[in-house]
Design a protein that fits this description.
By secondary structure, the protein is α/β, with parallel strands linked by helices. It has one domain: 3-Layer(aba) Sandwich (Rossmann fold), CATH 3.40.50.720. Helices cover 43% and strands 16% of the residues. A seven-stranded parallel sheet has the order 3-2-1-4-5-6-7, with helices on both faces. α4 links the parallel β4 and β5. α1 crosses α7, α3 runs parallel beside α4 and α4 runs parallel beside α5. The longest helix is centred in the middle third of the chain and has 29 residues. It is globular and about 45 Å long. The N and C termini lie far apart (37 Å).
Length: 237
């Protein structure tokens, strides 16, 4: 895809992988919309990346997605790429120590939110007969670590959802890709109440990989891409 002047919506765009991806794709000449819940962080991210628009929204709110669609149609007239990047650990601890509110919040943030975005915005891509949806997962969707059960289940569900959605949208030249990053040196761990992660893999590294997916020729489909840092030991089930 030729990236210049293409319109992309990046959820979770105020920090970490979303911020770095916004920075990189704006430098490629894309029209970048970043979305996040924290208005102050969003304003700082827009100033830092030069994003074309900063959209305060909660991805777990279906109404916020409807508002996002109306805004995109009004200000940009089209959408070429949806990057469902927003997510979080909520509560990374043994399952039997999690309460209903934590379980519901983790599923809403890591699964339902991306599904809402696809339901509201995919019709735009279908009508255009072009476009790309990238759903950001985690290696927790394909590997099992203790205490990550709910988060892993939500991301694994999103993985299969993406595959099924691609089957529906393929006739309309719309692609749906699963992007699967490993542990990265972002704000994910502190937000989940974990120790800071000093992994070699950075948000900028992840942005490089997402840029590569976005830059593929129109006839090329990336079903799934997994990116690891070479320092992460992988020995789960």
């Amino acid at each position: 895809m030729r990236l210049k002047d293409k319109v992309i919506l990046i959820t979770g765009g105020s920090s970490g992988m979303g911020l770095e991806t916004a920075r990189k794709l704006k430098a490629r000449g894309m029209r970048v919309i970043i979305a996040a819940r924290n208005k102050d962080a969003l304003a700082r991210a827009q100033a830092e990346t030069g994003a074309d628009f900063a959209l305060p929204m909660d991805v777990t709110s279906y109404g916020d997605w409807l508002n996002a669609k109306a805004l995109i149609e009004e200000k940009f007239g089209r959408l070429d790429i949806l990057l469902n990047n927003a997510g979080g650990g909520v509560a990374i601890k043994p399952f039997l120590e999690q309460d209903k509110a934590q379980i519901d919040a983790a599923v809403a943030l890591n699964l339902s939110g991306a599904m809402y975005g696809c339901r509201v915005l995919a019709p735009m891509l279908k009508e255009q007969k072009s476009g790309l949806i990238i759903n950001v997962l985690s290696v927790c969707a394909t590997h099992a670590w203790g205490s990550w059960s709910v988060y892993s289940a939500a991301k694994a569900g999103l993985r299969m959802f993406s595959r099924c959605l691609y089957e529906e949208l393929q006739p309309y030249n719309v692609k749906v890709t699963n992007f699967i990053p490993a542990a990265a040196n972002t704000n994910f761990n502190p937000a989940a109440g974990l120790e800071a992660n000093n992994a070699l893999l950075t948000g900028a590294d992840v942005a490089d990989a997402i840029e590569a997916i976005c830059s593929m020729k129109e006839h090329v489909y990336v079903e799934e891409m997994t990116v690891w840092g070479i320092d992460q030991e992988v020995s789960p089930l």
